[in-house]
Amino acid sequence: MIRLKQTVIVEGRYDKARLSSLIDANILTTDGFDIFRDKRKLHTIRMLAEKDGIILLTDSDAAGFRIRGYLSGAVPPERVTHVYIPDLFGKERRKAQPSAEGKLGVEGVPTKLLLEAFARAGITPETAEQGASDQAATGETRITQADLVEWGISGGENSFAVRQKLLKKLRLPARMGTKALLKTVNTLYTYEEFLHLVESL
Length: 201
Known about the structure:
Elements: E1 2-3, E2 7-10, H1 13-20, E3 23-24, E4 27-29, H2 39-52, E5 54-56, H3 62-74, E6 80-82, H4 111-120, H5 125-136, H6 145-150, H7 159-170, H8 178-188, H9 191-199
Parallel strand pairs: 1-3, 2-4, 2-5, 5-6
């Protein structure tokens, strides 16, 4: 398992599910071309890039490169690490037929090749662990799921409304679930900063 402080940006939920078994990181999806219209998600990605940097991992087809190019132009280049998967032809098991270009997406790439793609970008379990250790050494208190419940953001009668109000205030995507919210706020804010934001609602 590779632990990363950077947020990894992928195209879809199946890519995210695939990566979740290999890396411990905040993983956000572009929901394909929705990123071109979703200004709040783009704002989120810019904030995450500014804080700890982002890793772009898109498919190797034309659509993937279009999304990669768009996001690369939206954040400073020094805040982006590019991970490229190789061109592999075939289809994912869940699909009835191959993609338009016949290439496997991130979700279909074998584990060994995914790890090699990260290694080519300079990200190995050793380098990632060092970065995670540096982050842990700060001794910062992490925001937990229990905190979200205590503050009425999750698990309560009016949690959905509270969470929507919070997401709007933070300019985060309205469809962001509690797991993604938890990882994102822990990346962007200290415990005290986030508590202050919650109290100001």
